[in-house]
Amino acid sequence: MAEKNKETLLSIQNLSVEYASGGKIINAVNGVTMELKKGTALGLVGETGAGKTTIAKAIMKILPDHATRSVEGMIDFDGINILAAKEEVLQKIRGGDISMVFQDPMTALNPIMTVGDQIAEGIHLHQNQDKAKARLEAIQMLETVGISADRADEYPHQFSGGMKQRVVIAIALSCAPKLLIADEPTTALDVTIQAQVLDLIKSLRQKQDTSLIMITHDLGVVAEICDEVAVIYAGEIVESGTLEEIYDSPAHPYTVGLFGAIPDLKTKVDRLSPIEGLPPDPTDLPPGCHFAPRCPRATDACREKHPALNHLGGAHYVLCNRIGEE
Q1: DSSP H helices in 23-86
Q2: Which residues cross the membrane (predicted)?
Q3: pLDDT tens, residue by residue, 22-74
């Protein structure tokens, strides 16, 4: 659990992001407010298309210019207003103070540069090291993530998927960032390699006291590595709290449904219990609660009235009109 006296590293207030595509407006993120304390790991959980990656890209201000219609709200990173910051300021932050690990390591690696050079490049740029020293630190970072020094002159295609992701992690952590954003970092890997990559992120994060945002749809991953949880649905955070609060006492019907859909190997069941229906079309969100069309507890009021944010105690908040009812 995060300590109450820790300083805030990242504060997001009422963030909304709209994309434009095919003459339609896509409501990707809708009024998200959240904060992250220094040294804390936050799990951002939700289905594909919920807005998780858009939030991450907004934090780094790398949203696609050609498709982004509007970005509103405030993102404060360690005293810097990200959305208002000039590009030269952002270039120092990206890869230096904030690093990101993407889902597919091949899209994050340059196929015509050796892995050693790719790690050294960030060290040279962000830590003002000469190229020779940056090279030495890059080799040390490779060894830290479990790759031998003699592979520094090899290219990405010579590595397996799990080893590529280790290289990406080495690049991301080479400058000891204040914040690491990991966007589904294990999805493309097999189960055994997933566990190794998660252990690596966890140990290196703790060693460097780096804050973490872990973007995932896997509640098991969150339980393994995170202190706090924010559950996102249709561009809104519907429930947030400490790991213990969310896992011991899930309150939002969507969160309850996510836990209910997890197979229990100790209990014999004829079929799983998925959440019925599909997420709403982000170009045509329902007027009331966005989860109402799929919610087993929804009333007419839920379908008409946007839910209120309820404080359940501690760090636990839930966006639902039915909270407090029997």
Answers
A1: 52-60
A2: none
A3: 899 999 999 999 999 999 999 999 999 999 999 999 999 999 999 999 999 99
Residue 1: the pLDDT is 39
pLDDT at 159: 94
Task: Give the long-range contacts of residues 20-27, CB within 8 A, separation 24 or more.
Answer: 20/67, 20/68, 20/69, 21/67, 24/283, 25/69, 25/283, 26/282, 26/283, 27/235, 27/282, 27/283, 27/285
The Cα 91–Cα 1 span in angstroms is 32
- Name the residue among 4, 9, 3 with its Cα closest to residue 180: 9
What are the angstrom distances between the C-alpha of 291 and each of 249, 252, 278, 302, 319? Answer: 19, 10, 10, 9, 10
Task: With CA atoms as reference, report the closest residue to 187 among 116, 105, 93.
Answer: 105
DSSP designation for 67: T
Answer whether residue 305 shows pLDDT above 60.
yes
**In a 3-state reduction of DSSP, which class is residue 194?**
helix
Sheet holding 211-216, edge to edge: 98-101, 179-183, 211-216, 41-45, 228-233, 236-242, 316-319, 309-313
H-assigned helices in the chain: 52-60, 87-93, 105-108, 115-126, 131-144, 161-173, 191-208, 219-225, 243-248, 253-260, 300-304
- How many angstroms separate the CA atoms of 88 and 255, rounded? 40
- How many Cα atoms sit within 13 Å of 255 on the Cβ side? 26
Is the pLDDT at 326 greater than 70? The verdict is no
